Write a sequence for this structure.
């Protein structure tokens, strides 16, 4: 058998982590033939809970799991890891300004970026889930100068999947019949789920829906979906976020079949500002992540993209002393 | 493609349900080629939370999921279902006697057994997870006279997996090297995890451990594992319970590779009282569940089995007006 892949998950005892680690351990992310070691990072006050998670992982008797390392040290968590999923982040507390939130998370992702730089496998892939994900990802990758920025991405797969679900409901089709959809920009309420190149059962999506629904129902529904779920469940989306992380890493590691959406380090594609982490339509293969080129973007799309781009530039400016 | 399999889960918005339904939807229970419909039952006060779970299931854009039916009606939930996983049950509240707990759950499982009898597919398979699982299962199957008792089982796979994990740690082997282990009796602190026919990497388990560890450490650790996890996590075992349910149904539906443990309706095998739901070593194939026969049980094992058998007889006597 191959060497076990080493997978690190931060915030492993949190709501998303508790959904994520069992599915990874069952082989859903890297395949049912691939053995793995799980390195689970938590902050010191959560170590008892993390030990409970480890006990439950033991109690699943997963055939693929060859080792579990619970730790509160980023250096231990990231030692020689092939994949790192950065879920843990500081949530916004009442009265906290967005700038304070960026700053508080800046510290976490500076430390973790440095630890990845110093300890991880040289070809590590790093997915940032913890919010504000795009800018946390930017801080992490700038804190890891010995790694390539292409080894880091921010999760917009949940937004992508939410957009698929909304469009499938509207057109009474199955999600598996939708192709070409993409989410642009920031994982925030400014994100732009774009239908211009999307097909549903082979037909142009924009021939099946009207612009009023697209602009005034679909886009806000995707942008505000997290709040709607929080309202219904009384808790934020954990299972669907974990599922999106699994799918995004699986596609990155094993290759995509379809166009998907990932937040990647911009080098100016589509005229977007450089040096921000921006969600684009992408495909993945053994050579890495490829931004889909030559999409036609109409005036409506360009305006929506400009708004989310500006937000990311502002976020970068707010934490520029950290990068 | 085949017709979607219809799978009902009760208590679908609870802690175990929230872990379970996403993994079922991803194809972990019935295979990654098998499309399915999910019927999700909750009690009326939990319908908002259940709708949040359905929103998140939508937001996973699972290719295999062809429909989701959230409901508070057992008849709707069980209509033509091929598999029913009964997770929801009344937990013990402070000051509640065991008899009161059996009675409160007796109502739930009487209603659900009748609804399965009237509405489910004629070859439905029913797994009872909600505690007290064995006696809840007995009530359900006796409330479904048109179905065979062999179509019902109670979950002892979590206990089985917990025993595997403890033995693997003790012998410094991997869980996948252990064969023949079985849990006998009730899913309760009287259960008996038996090592008499167990091998570890081909060697007799009882040649690798001493009787003091077996009787005074291993058995109590497996029996009390749920309490230990509750203490560490602050919440009861949800992910590992959901995992066990997935594995038990998968083995039942697709067949076992190894001996496992399931609570089945006793017809007297090994001299156990009839008409209780008792965990035995079993295998599964297309013909159903088969109790492993002719195991040699020494005096120690017979004493342990008698204790858990007596508990189940007492539970049956406490609810005999319901069956």
């Amino acid at each position: 058998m191959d060497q076990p892949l080493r997978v690190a998950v931060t915030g492993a005892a949190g709501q998303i982590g508790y959904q994520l680690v069992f599915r990874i351990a069952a082989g859903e992310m890297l395949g049912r033939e691939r053995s793995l070691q799980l390195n689970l990072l938590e902050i010191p006050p959560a170590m008892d809970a993390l030990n409970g998670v480890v006990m439950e992982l033991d109690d699943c008797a997963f055939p693929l799991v060859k080792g579990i390392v619970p730790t509160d040290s980023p250096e231990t968590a990231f030692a020689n890891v092939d994949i790192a999923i950065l879920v843990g982040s500081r949530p916004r507390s009442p009265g906290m300004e967005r700038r304070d939130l960026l700053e508080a998370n800046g510290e976490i992702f500076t430390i973790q970026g440095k630890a990845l730089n110093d300890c991880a496998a040289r070809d590590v892939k790093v997915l940032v889930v913890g919010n504000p994900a795009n800018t946390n990802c930017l801080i992490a990758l700038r804190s890891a100068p010995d790694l390539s920025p292409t080894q880091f991405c921010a999760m917009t797969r949940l937004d992508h999947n939410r957009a698929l679900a909304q469009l499938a409901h509207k057109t009474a089709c199955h999600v598996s019949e939708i192709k070409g959809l993409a989410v642009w920009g920031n994982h925030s309420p400014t994100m732009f789920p774009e239908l211009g190149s999307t097909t549903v059962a082979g037909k142009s999506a924009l021939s099946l829906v009207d612009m009023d629904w697209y602009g005034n129902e679909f886009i806000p529904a995707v942008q505000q979906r997290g709040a709607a779920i929080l309202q219904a469940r009384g808790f934020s989306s954990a299972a669907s976020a974990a599922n999106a992380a699994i799918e995004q890493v699986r596609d990155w590691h094993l290759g995509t079949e379809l166009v998907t959406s990932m937040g990647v380090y911009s080098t100016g594609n589509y005229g977007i500002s450089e040096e921000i982490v921006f969600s684009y339509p992408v495909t993945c293969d053994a050579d890495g992540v490829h931004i889909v080129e030559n999409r036609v973007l109409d005036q409506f799309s360009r305006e929506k993209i400009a708004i989310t781009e500006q937000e990311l530039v502002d976020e970068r400016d707010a934490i520029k002393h950290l990068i």
